[in-house]
């Protein structure tokens, strides 16, 4: 499968950012696309189950998943009909049934030659959870039998549903959807929570309300608990006088410029970091990728997924902001893998003692990696 145009940084230059709309501590920035295409469309497939299990060749992924996303595309640039818009006989939809448990096979499943079902954002989270999942490839003496035999065994992360974030439901309800709007950037207490982009304005109108069903990071939840009300952006035009149409045009251009600068400032933690991407599937001329930042402990980190054209332009994107604890766990796993799971070498690369590394692993929830007697000795040594 050829790989081209892997995403290395989030670049929103192909889009216009409209003035933000605020409600309580939520800031929503509409994303506009003047020239959109009709050859790729996204639709939603609703799930009613309380839990969804996704079976792959060797792993099982379990989560609450409110909907899947259906991508349809054409190979000849002709418009396609999005999922859910076909004419059908009146009556109950074949998909409309209730079950406490939903079973899906694979995170991304090809349903016909030009239709794929994938599970939005769970594709990215699966990539994060499976990071270095196989465990040590050398039987180092410090590791427990279970890790040497079965790898990490299981991994889990806590997320928060959008409905739990203060003010988000009201903000989405009163939000004005623009013409040619294909996405939104969500800020909570002016901290970036998520970027959501789709190929077509009609797709966005369909999915706008579903943002409350998405999952978000714990950090975003705690930001939402603050009583901070986000301010309107300062356009810097209050003292300008308008005496002619030329003055009005000048004022409008200045307002847009100031808006853009302030949006760039708010977005710097999303658009400045370099990201590592991996292609998971080809959808004709489109590339489905998942990505994450380098998990540096000193900067904000996020994971996400995207659909790109062959020219690198973004057609779909969804991001998730990692908490410091989540990034720390990922960073430790990557550091171990980079050093062939050699604790001595990994500790050296992190400028710490081997016992300190063992304690860091234990504090991150990875104490089960280490043999009990070695972990106990490290804990005892830390008390002296």
From TrEMBL:
Residues 10-283 form the ARG and Rhodanese-Phosphatase-superfamily-associated domain. InterPro entries: ARPP-2. Pfam families: ARPP-2 (PF22549). This is ARG and Rhodanese-Phosphatase-superfamily-associated domain-containing protein. It comes from hydrothermal vent metagenome.
């Amino acid at each position: 499968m050829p790989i081209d145009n892997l995403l290395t940084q989030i670049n929103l230059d192909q889009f216009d950012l409209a003035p933000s709309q605020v409600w309580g501590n939520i800031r929503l920035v509409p994303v506009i696309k003047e020239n959109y295409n009709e050859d790729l469309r996204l639709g939603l497939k609703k799930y009613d189950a309380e839990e969804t299990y996704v079976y792959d060749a060797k792993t099982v992924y379990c989560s609450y998943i409110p909907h899947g996303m259906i991508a349809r595309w054409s190979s000849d640039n002709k418009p396609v009909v999005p999922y859910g818009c076909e004419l059908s006989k009146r009556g109950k939809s074949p998909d409309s049934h209730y079950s406490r448990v939903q079973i899906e096979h694979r995170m991304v499943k090809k349903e016909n030659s030009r239709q794929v079902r994938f599970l939005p954002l769970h594709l990215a989270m699966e990539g994060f959870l499976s990071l270095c999942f196989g465990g040590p490839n050398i039987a180092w003496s410090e590791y427990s039998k279970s890790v040497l035999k079965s790898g990490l065994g299981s991994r889990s992360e806590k997320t928060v549903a959008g409905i739990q974030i203060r003010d988000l439901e009201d903000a989405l309800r009163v939000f004005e959807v623009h013409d040619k709007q294909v996405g939104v950037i969500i800020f909570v207490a002016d901290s970036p929570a998520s970027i959501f982009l789709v190929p077509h304005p009609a797709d966005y109108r369909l999915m706008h309300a579903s943002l409350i069903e998405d999952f978000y990071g714990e950090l975003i939840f705690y930001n939402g608990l603050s009583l901070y009300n986000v301010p309107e952006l300062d356009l810097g035009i209050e003292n300008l006088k308008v005496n002619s149409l030329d003055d009005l045009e000048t004022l409008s251009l200045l307002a847009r410029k100031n808006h853009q600068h302030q949006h760039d400032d708010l977005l710097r933690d999303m658009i400045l970091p370099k990201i590592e991407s991996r292609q998971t599937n080809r959808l004709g001329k489109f590339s489905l990728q998942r990505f994450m930042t380098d998990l540096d402990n000193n900067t904000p980190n996020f994971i996400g997924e995207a659909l790109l054209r062959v020219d690198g332009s973004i057609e779909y994107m969804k991001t998730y902001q990692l908490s410091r604890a989540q990034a720390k766990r990922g960073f430790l796993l990557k550091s171990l893998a980079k050093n062939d799971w050699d604790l001595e070498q990994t500790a050296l690369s992190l400028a710490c003692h081997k016992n300190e590394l063992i304690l860091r692993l234990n504090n991150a929830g990875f104490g089960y990696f280490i043999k009990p007697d070695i972990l106990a000795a490290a804990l005892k040594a830390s008390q002296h």
